[in-house]
Amino acid sequence: MMVENLSPPLLEARQVAKHFGGVKALRDVSLSIRQGEVYGLIGPNGAGKTTLFNCLTGLYVPDGGSFIFAGSPLAADAPHEAAARGIARTFQNIRLFGNMTALENVMVGRHLRTRAGVFGAIFRDPKTRAEEAAIQRRAEELLHYVGIADRAWDLANNLSYGDQRRLEIARALATEPKLLCLDEPAAGMNATETAELRRLIEGIRQDGTTVLLIEHDVKLVMGLCDRVAVLDYGEKICEDVPAAVQRDQRVIEAYLGGGHLA
Amino acid sequence: MKWMNSRSAAGIALVAVALVALPFVAAMGGQAWVRIVDFAILYVFLALGLNIVVGLAGLLDLGYVAFYAVGAYVYALLASPHFGLHLPFWAIVPMGAATACVFGVLLGTPTLKLRGDYLAIVTLGFGEIIRIFLNNLNAPVNITNGAQGITLIDPVAIGGFKFSGTTQILGISLSGPQKYYFLLVALAIVVILINLRLQHSRIGRAWQAIREDEVAAKAIGINTRNIKLLAFAMGASFGGVAGGIFSAMQGFVSPESFSLVESISILSMVVLGGMGHIPGVILGAVLLTVLPELLRYGVGPVQQALFGKVLVDPESLRMLIFGLALVLVMRWRPAGLWPSSERRRELAEKT
C-alpha cells in the first residue's frame, strides 16, 4: 500500500520546537506528510507526540519553526483558522460536548462550513431552513459513516467508550478536513473495536483524506500506515516505511532500552 | 411539519385564556398585584436574556443588571424633562437595546480568556462600575442626576394610545398596570420565541459547544472570541429592552434599583428554574418575583393572628425564606426546578 513518492507534501513541519520551562518537549522536529497517505507518529510516553499535535492545531504556540500546510504557512495561535484551513483533530482524552446529543455534536462540526447568523436563526428564512436541513442531513450521514447512526439522539456522555471515539471522528470529519489528526484513537479499545476502527480509517483514506495517526497499538500502526515517524525525547529519531522502522536499532533502543523487539 | 397535535393546541388555548384572565384576577387583590405580575414578566425578560449568557454559553455573569441599568437610563434620558427630550417608545427601545449591546461587547472583550469564578468576579465589578458611574455622573456635567435619579419619565405611548391611566376599551375598563401587562406579555412571547429559535440554531449550538468544552469548540473551527462576544451582546440587548420598559413603567429611575442584589436574584431565577431550559427559566423568574411578595403580604398578618403582634420584620423573614428555598433547591434539585430532560438524565446518572 505504498503511496507514490511523487505526491506533493500536504503538511510540512520545519524544525518545530516547543519547551515548557526547562523541558524540551519538541526539538526541531521536521517531517513532511504526503497527500493521501496515512502517516503514523509513534514514540514512548512523553516523547512529544501530542505536543506536536497541539502545535499543529494552534492550541500551543511553537517556540520555533513553522508548519507549511497545502503550500502556505499556518498561523501559530489560531485553532479555528487551522480548522478552517482543513486540519481536524481528535483528542487523546476524548473531548466531546457531553450534554449535547451525538447528532448535535456532529452538527456543531458543520459550523465552519455554514453561514447562518443571529438574524437567520430568529427569522428562519428559507435559506437558513435549507442550510439547517443540510447540516442535519450531513450529520446523520456522518454518524452512519462511522457506524453509530442508531445512537444519534443519545447524549454524548452516555455513549460507550468506543462509540465516543467514533463520534469524535465523525465530528472532525464534519469540518471537511484535508488532514485528519487522530490522537490515540484505539486507546482502550478491544480487538474487535480496533479492527472496526482500522476499517474506518482505511475508508477515510480511500475517500481522499490524509490521516496523521498517533497510536500505541503497534499492530494497528504497522498495518495501516504508509510511513511512520518515531519521536523520542522530543526528537525525531526515525522516519520510514513501517517494516524498516520496526528493524531500526534506534527505535528498538528507545522502546526497550537496548533490548530486542519481541 | 406536523408539530402541533390537538392536545398541544388545547394546551396553548388554555394558556392563552389564563394569560388574558390573569390581570383581571390579580386586580381583585388590588392594582398592586397587577404591578407584581407585570414585574414578574419583566423578570422573565431579564432571566431569559441572562440565560443566553449563563445557560447556553456557560459564561457566569454576575453583573447582568448593568445592562438593565443602561437600557433604563437610555429611556429615562431620552423621554423625560431632564434633557427636555421626549422621543417615542418605539424609537428609544431599539436604541436602549443597541447601547446595552455595545456595553455587552465592552464587558465581553476584556473577559474573553476568563472562565468560571474569575469571570464572575470581573462581571460583578463591571456591574458595580456602571452603578457607581450612574451615581456620580451629575458633575461636572449633569447627565444622570446622580443619586436623586430621573423623575417624570414618559409612560409608554404607541401612536396616541397611552399606557398610563385608566381607559375604556370595548366597554372594559383597563388600568395602567393592566395595559402594561398586555404589552409585556406580547413582548415576552417575542422574547421566548427568539430564545427558542436561537437555542436550536447554528449559533445556539456553538454557544453550547463552548459551554461544554471550549478547547474542543476551538479545534473544530468555532471562533470562540466572536461567538462569546455575540452571547454577551445578545444577552445584554434583552436586558436593555427590559430596562427601557422598567423606566417607562416606573416613571422614575435611580442607581439604587441596579444593585448587586438585583444581579444575583436574576441569576438565581436562571439557576433555580433550570439553567439553559427556557420553561424552567420562566418558572424561576415568576416564582422568585411572586413568592417574596406573597411572603411580604402574608407574613405580617399570619404573625398577628398567631402571636397577637408582629415578632419578626416581614422584610428580613422574606430574605431568610428566600435563602432557605435556594439552599433546599440546590440540595434536592441541583439541576433546577424544571430542568431540561437531558440535563436531568445526566445528573441522575452522576448521583
Features:
heterodimer, A: about 260 residues, alpha/beta, 6-stranded mixed beta sheet, 4-stranded antiparallel beta sheet, 10 helices, 10 strands, globular, B: about 350 residues, mainly alpha, ABC transporter involved in vitamin B12 uptake, BtuC, two-stranded antiparallel sheet, two-stranded antiparallel ribbon, 13 helices
Can you tell me about this structure?
- The complex is a heterodimer of chains A (262) and B (351).
- Chain A contains 10 helices and 10 strands.
- With 262 residues, chain A is of the alpha/beta class.
- Chain A has a domain at 99-176.
- In chain A, strand 4 and strand 5 form a beta hairpin.
- In chain A, helix 3 (102-109) runs parallel beside helix 6 and helix 5 packs across helix 6.
- Chain A starts with 8 loop residues before the first strand and ends in a 6-residue tail after the last helix.
- Chain B has 351 residues and is mainly alpha-helical.
- Chain B has a single domain (2-350), classed as ABC transporter involved in vitamin B12 uptake, BtuC, CATH 1.10.3470.
- Chain B has helices spanning 6-27, 31-56, 65-78, 89-108, 116-136, 176-199, 202-212, 214-219, 224-250, 260-273, 278-307, 314-332, 341-350; strands at 79-80, 85-86, 157-158, 161-162, 167-169, 172-174.
- The interface between A and B is large, with 43 and 30 residues.
Describe the secondary structure blueprint for this structure.
The complex is a heterodimer of chains A (262) and B (351).
Chain A: E1 9-20, E2 23-34, E3 38-42, H1 49-56, E4 64-69, E5 72-73, H2 79-85, E6 87-89, H3 102-109, H4 118-123, H5 126-146, H6 161-173, E7 179-183, H7 191-206, E8 210-214, H8 218-224, E9 227-232, E10 235-240, H9 242-247, H10 249-256
Parallel strand pairs in A: 3-8, 3-9, 6-7, 7-8
Antiparallel strand pairs in A: 1-2, 1-4, 4-5, 9-10
Helix pairs in contact in A: 3-5, 3-6, 5-6
Chain B: H1 6-27, H2 31-56, H3 65-78, E1 79-80, E2 85-86, H4 89-108, H5 116-136, E3 157-158, E4 161-162, E5 167-169, E6 172-174, H6 176-199, H7 202-212, H8 214-219, H9 224-250, H10 260-273, H11 278-307, H12 314-332, H13 341-350
Antiparallel strand pairs in B: 1-2, 3-4, 5-6
Helix pairs in contact in B: 1-2, 1-6, 2-6, 2-9, 2-10, 2-11, 3-4, 3-5, 3-9, 4-9, 7-9, 10-11, 11-12
